[in-house]
Every structure is written in structure tokens, then in C-alpha cells.
Specification:
58% of the residues lie in helices and 21% in strands. The chain has 292 residues and is of the alpha+beta class. It has 3 domains: 125 residues, no CATH class; 90 residues, 2-Layer Sandwich (Alpha-Beta Plaits); 45 residues. The strands form 2 sheets. It has a 5-stranded mixed β-sheet. A two-stranded antiparallel ribbon has the order 1-2. Strand 1 and strand 2 form a beta hairpin. Helix 1 runs antiparallel to helix 5, helix 2 packs across helix 5 and helix 5 runs antiparallel to helix 6.
Length: 292
Amino acid sequence: MERRGAVWAMILLSVSACSKASAPAAEASSHETAGDNAAVAKPMAMSAASATPGGAMVNVERVDRRIIRNADIGIDTDDVIDAERRASAIAEEQGGYVASSDRSSRASDGEPGIIVNMVLRIPSDHFMASIDRLEKLASRVLEQRVSSDDVTEEFIDVKARVVAQRTLEAQFLEILTQARSVKDALEVNTQLAEVRTTIERLQGRQRYLENQTSISTIKLAITHGVPLVSAGRFAFAESIERAGADLLNVSAAIVHGGIRVLGVLAPILALVVLPGLAAVRALMRRRRRADA
């Protein structure tokens, strides 16, 4: 029991030291909260310090702004296939690549056509330049939507929390070497596994943010002959044909509905209504005879 108490006392002291080294100037209510607050003390110009196993202080380096950029562009061009080929070339010239490219057929004013939907991944430094070059492929730009999401604060927070969790992991490893019993070693290993799981989760989020902010996404739709205003042409014979079809459909629906209603009412009529009428008629006859 004394050995176990000594081990857990060392764990508590280690956690406390890690939290104090990672916390901002204000005190936090718990060790984990203190470590998290240190990550966002000064997001845009961060120099938060975290403790190393040897007690030295390490500053988290300053990071640039992290922005996720996306764009949706729709263009109309005379040659859809050539525009698709040139869009792929633009993506490669800008240091990006074509993530996907789909072709589908459509009819415009009775004429067959092709729609190409592309997803381009472009380095963020060449994002606006790529949009300008893609729009030059069009005879007419149908739509353009550009969105930006600043995730700098989240990126700094995740990065600092990884540093704090690494420090905590080192502290647990040091405590593990001083464990005097199998039970104490298992308890420390349990805490160590939780810390490593947290590190893996944070590193996964960090890699995702790095990928999304370093490479932007452009969704490009290429079509041909899209009318500025959708207007249907007048066709008298076609209207009459549709009206006749509607008349037949409605008449057939009414007939089918009547048949179904009769199918439902026939058993009721035969089993309930007719016997009831017969019983009422018989009662009325009896009353007449009694009165007579």
C-alpha cells in the first residue's frame, strides 16, 4: 500500500507540473483545462511554453494563418471536352491535380450535350490565379462562389495540445520505470494508453487541417448552350395530346376508385345493411299485426 501510494503521488506531481508549465498566466481549474488554455493563450502570435521531461521550457513556434479555401465555378463553353482537357492542364501547371472528373449527357432544346463536373485540388498560394485562368476558358461564366474558413486558432490549439500530451506521455514513461509492482505498472500503462490515444486523435486532426489549408478545392462545372432564361416553346398539338392523356388518366383513376369503393362496400352491404333492413321490416310487420 505504501508503494502504491508513493507511485500515485508521483503521478499527481507529474501531472501538476505538466499542467502548470502549459497553462497561461491565469490559473485553471484542472490539469487538463490548464493544458488546453495554454494552447490558445495568444492564437495569432503564440509563444506558449510547455514543459519537457527534464524541466526545460520549449516555445511553440509562431505559425502562419491557416485558411481553408473552396470555390464553385460554372462555365459555358463551345467545346466542353477541350475545356476539360485545358482545365486539367491548368491544375497540373499550378502544382495541383484533378481529384475527380465526371461526364454526363443532357439535352438542351432537343439537342444532345455533355456536362463535365471536375474537382480540382490546387495549392492555396495559386488559388485565385487558378480561378482566373479557369474562367478564361469560358465564353460565359454561369456562377462563381468562393468561401474561406480561418482555422488558425484551432490549428494552434491542436498543435499545443499535442506538445502538452507528449510531455505528459514522457512523464508517465518515467514513472513506469519506477513502478515496484505489476499492479502499479498496469495502472500507469492504462493512463499511458489514454494519453497516446489522445495524441493520435489530435495528430489526425492536425494532419487534416494541414492538408485542407495547404491545398484548396475548386469544383468546376463545364456545360454548353445553357440558356440565359428557361422558356418553353408553344406547341398546340402537344398541349392537346397532353390534355387528352390527362383526361384518360383521370377517367381511369375515377373508374378504378369506384371499383375499389364497391369492393369495400359490397361486403358491408351484404352482411350488415341488407340484414338490418330485413330485421326492421319484420319488426314493422309485427307492430302492424299487433295494432290490428
